[in-house]
Amino acid sequence: MNTPITITLYDLLIALLIIAGISVMVLLIICLIRIIKMLGKFNDFIDKTSKPVSDSIAFLPEIVENVSITSKNVAEITESAGALVDGVGDVFGSSDSNDGSIFSKISFITNLVQSVVTVIKNLFSKD
Question: 0.70 cut: is pTM over it?
Answer without folding.
Answer: no
